[in-house]
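ok so i was messing around last nite and threw this chain in just to see what happens. nothing serious, just curious
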Amino acid sequence: MISFLLVIFCLFSLVKSVDVFVGQASSLAKKFKVNDFIIGLTIVAFGTSLPELISAIFSSLSARNQLVMSSVIGSNITNLCLILGLIALFKNYRIRKRDVNINIPLNLTALMAFWALSSFMNYTLNWAAGISLLLIFSVLVLLSKEYNHFKSVTRDYDEFHLLHLILSLVVLIVSGKICIDQIIILASQLEISETILGYFLLSLGTSLPELVTTWVAVKRNDGELGMGNLLGSNLFNLLFVLAISTFISPVKVTNFTYDLLFLTLATFAVYAFAIIGKKYSFSRKEGAGLLVIYLLFVLFQLVRAF
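result:
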């Protein structure tokens, strides 16, 4: 119970420190007269994926490959199916045509490239594969001039305090370290797979920034921003986060082929729903469909575990 409470507390601290860090980093960039587009595309866009990055780094340092992969795959499926599905149940979720024409296909392209690279590397990604992933990530971002939903972010920049920036970074790192250590202990105590905790505890916790950002965007009738946040986060997780992990320790994909296939099918489902939905909208019907897909993923993992 203590380990579980520590994990929950650390996940909360992780998410909160990211919010402070992004706010302070944005303020610092603004002081140096960096334009809103660059701030949005870098600091704000990647800020919501910092929990996944920090947890992946510490998982790699602990040689816990299963936590790296399960956190990334779980977060991406959570973003696409659980978050988007839940929000669509409460509010008709309108997206832009560019999402259907550009941004969702970008995610599918990233998945196809990841499949091809994994197969070529015999499903073990080393530092060379990491460099390839970073190159693919850079190319996909540069290819799409429309990959900039975050440019519409209008946030009141906090007053910059160097101490706040440093403290938020320290809390971010310490929380990530403790969280991974406690998840490993919790898995041992409960005698369950670390992968299960990665899918349903770590991935849910690290996806909280995406949930909050998307929900706020929808409340402001800016569903395009929310969709861009989810798609951008998934692209960042799959390519950038895993790339950084490979520089620390090789990432084995062998035991996650079915999970990656599920993620690929889920992305195709989002693409299909976006086309089928009335005027590029996710209604309650599409939201329910996405939640069914997430439920199937949960059942699939539970059957495999037990």
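not much to say yet. Residues 2-305 form a domain with the A middle domain of Talin 1 fold (CATH 1.20.1420.30).
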